[in-house]
Fold this sequence. Notes:
The chain is of the alpha/beta class.
Amino acid sequence: MTGPEKSMRQRMLDGELYIGNEELWRDYLRAQDLTRRVNALPASDGGTRRELLAELLGAIGEDTDIRTPIQFDYGYQTFFGARSFVNFGFVCLDVARVTIGDDVQIATNVQLLTAWHPIDPQARRDKWEGGSPITIGDNVWLGGGVIVCPGVTIGENTVVGAGSVVVKDLPANVVAAGNPARIIREL
């Protein structure tokens, strides 16, 4: 015997396949309650918004501004650097860690999707799922409607054009666009 079996939460945090259970459901409900409270605040109540976001998120850097509405799976898996800006309609399926650097600009209706499901039909039927981390480097700009898929890293200073779907890593200092996103030019 090698010791106690990992909890499903620990499996999720470790990037292993997991099945949702009561513990993860409680975490999810906590995030949904905090998200609902943040989304219900008037725009003028920035102090309370920041307090609730600090409770919801893994980290929120100094002078980072997140406009509502927003949606997170768990919140505690998402880490924002300083001076970043997130516009309306942000969706973050953070079953794996999401790291967003300093001075990042995220336009309207951007989706960061760490969650994935097995290709094997029986594993999907049994409700197994997984997640792969997303990393957004410093000074990145994600245009409106960008979708970033599981496991992607976007290098610093990179710009991703509106409506792009990023399925593979993008290096630093490029402009990329399209579905799938492709490098258009270097900066």
